[in-house]
């Protein structure tokens, strides 16, 4: 009994340290060592983890979950916890206490990124406005990407595949580093290290992606052709640099909106499909969008905390040549 | 930048090359960075250039379609790297924000 109590205390201690932004590398290593030391330790840690997520404040108003109050990033963690609570309710959890094997949920708000250490030592960097559900079983490690983007550094467990599911497909790895992003074109899996198998649910269609390759799939278009990608660029967003190689503007804007403090909208269908290439830092999004005015026929308007991209000649009410008037 | 057309890149002294970037402000173009850009399409080479120069860049993908770059290796000022990378390509960069560049297509000198 005594040792169980100690174990519970230790699990709580390490869990809280790992939640702390000031956690040191030594502490992370020590925590992982402790978790891996025995199956009981691992179970205790998972139990603390699932309890923690259940203690999200239930009285949090649903409004707080929407990304609309974009400047309130300091409430990110609270909102994320509230979101976790909603996900739990949405899944129909009958009891407030879940067994140790209950899936763990993680979520971020707009502009927030978060590093998570999973019970097996695998690491996840969760992008802005993103969410995952971690569902570990003795023989598989299953993660569902609910929203946004996540980078996975998978601890090697040859007997226990690591599977990321998103929108009707999955990426399967044994020990590697790869990114999964839900975007306007579908789900994109990019490999920064090792080998990943990408498969559509219920189909034979699958592809093995080696390092430096990526593939996009969707329900509508199926599994696309794999293409090369700079492995360093795959992890670039975790350092605040977003890179877009030949992407339609609508997809670029959708990705930017997971980081932009101001909501970006495209007001004109004609410009949605224009393909652009570029690189932008999270802190320089507005400057970068202004640069777009020099690149394609578009105007950027800042109104009511929003950044609106419009064609320079909206039909109807603006007498036509907005650009000539401005000159 | 058509001044440089036909001039071998290796003949350009760093001093001469440092005048390459149009409308640079705030001394960004004088910053010295290490560039390691392997041969690849000009499209992705310019993205690598921007990442390594710590600049933002944006352009229409079709503008550079079918163009290739021999790449660039070594320490350069940001503007020298621009000249070295874009020599003889018919393209140039210009600043439209403190740290943001866009790509311009230049007509070949004999077509003006």
Unreliable runs of chain B: 1-20
Mean pLDDT of chain B: 78
The biggest beta sheet of chain A is recorded as: 8 strands, antiparallel
Number of strands of chain B: 7
Question: What is the beta-strand fraction of chain B?
Answer: 25-35%
Question: Compute the gyration radius of chain B: what is it?
Answer: 13 Å
- Note the gap between the termini of chain B: 14 Å
Radius of gyration of chain A from CA coordinates = 22 Å
* Percent in helix of chain B: 10-25%
Please identify the oligomeric state.
heterodimer
- C-alpha geometry of chain A: globular
H/E order of the elements of chain A? HHHHEEEEEEEEEEEEEEEHEHEHEHEEH
Low-confidence stretches of chain A: 53-100, 318-327
User: Which structural class do the helices and strands of chain B define?
Assistant: alpha+beta
Q: How would you summarize what this structure contains?
A:
By secondary structure, chain A is α+β, with helices and mostly antiparallel strands. Helix content of chain A is 28%, strand content 32%. Chain A contains 9 helices and 20 strands.
Report on this structure.
The complex is a heterodimer of chains A (327) and B (112). With 327 residues, chain A is an alpha+beta fold. Helix content of chain A is 28%, strand content 32%. Chain A is built from nine helices and 20 strands. In chain A, the strands form four sheets. In chain A, strands 2, 3, 6, 9, 10, 13, 14 and 15 form an eight-stranded antiparallel β-sheet that branches. In chain A, strands 1-4-5-7-8-11-12 form a seven-stranded mixed β-sheet. A three-stranded mixed β-sheet of chain A has the order 17-20-19. In chain A, a hairpin with a 2-residue loop joins strand 9 and strand 10 (186-193). Chain A starts with a helix and ends with a helix. The model of chain A is unreliable at 53-100 and 318-327 (pLDDT under 50). Chain B is an alpha+beta fold and 112 residues long. Chain B has three helices and seven strands; from the N terminus they run αββαβββαββ. Chain B has helices at 14-17, 42-53, 78-86, and strands at residues 32-37, 40-41, 56-60, 68-69, 72-77, 91-97, 100-105. In chain B, the strands form three sheets. Chain B has a three-stranded mixed β-sheet, covered by helices on one side. In chain B, strands 1-5 form a two-stranded antiparallel ribbon. In chain B, strands 2-4 form a two-stranded antiparallel ribbon. In chain B, helix 2 packs antiparallel against helix 3. The relative contact order of chain B is 0.27. Chain A binds chain B through residues 230, 233, 236, 241, 243, 245-246, 274-281, 284, 287-288, 290-292, 294-296, and chain B through 43-44, 46-48, 50-51, 55-62, 64, 96-103.
